[in-house]
Amino acid sequence: MGRVEVFDHTADLGLRIWADDLSDLFRTAAEGLFDVVTADRSTIEPREEEAVALASDSPEHLLLDWLNELIFRVETRHALYARFDVAVAADGRSLTGVIAGEPIDPDRHELDHEVKAATYHGLVVRREADGWFAEIIVDI
Hints:
Blueprint: E1 3-9, E2 12-19, H1 22-37, E3 48-55, H2 59-77, E4 79-88, E5 94-103, E6 117-118, E7 124-128, E8 131-139
Antiparallel strand pairs: 1-2, 2-8, 3-5, 4-5, 6-8, 7-8
Helix pairs in contact: 1-2
Pfam families: Archease
Organism: Paludisphaera mucosa
Domain Archease: 5-140
């Protein structure tokens, strides 16, 4: 199971993610994103499922596309997500999965940061001796 650390970056926030494999890295990055978006991710219930399929030219760009897809869905569907079942291809250039969440309920969900986008600035995805590491800055 992966872990994520949030760090300040000028007017933005950064996420550092460690995980055993690429699928875990992407799942953990999504969880980290929603830890930034909401004050308490545990209040989000996985009531409705949505399919996701993405392809890109590198693991770095795929991670960026993945997080931006989630941000886009928050903004356009007015929903929050709690479960991220994702399978990333071995080459890190495509993913398929199912995300689950629910419409934003102001009585139960305390929003913390409005995340506008994941950015290319300082974007890193690399294999390490004990798994995978990523660092990404999100514009708030």
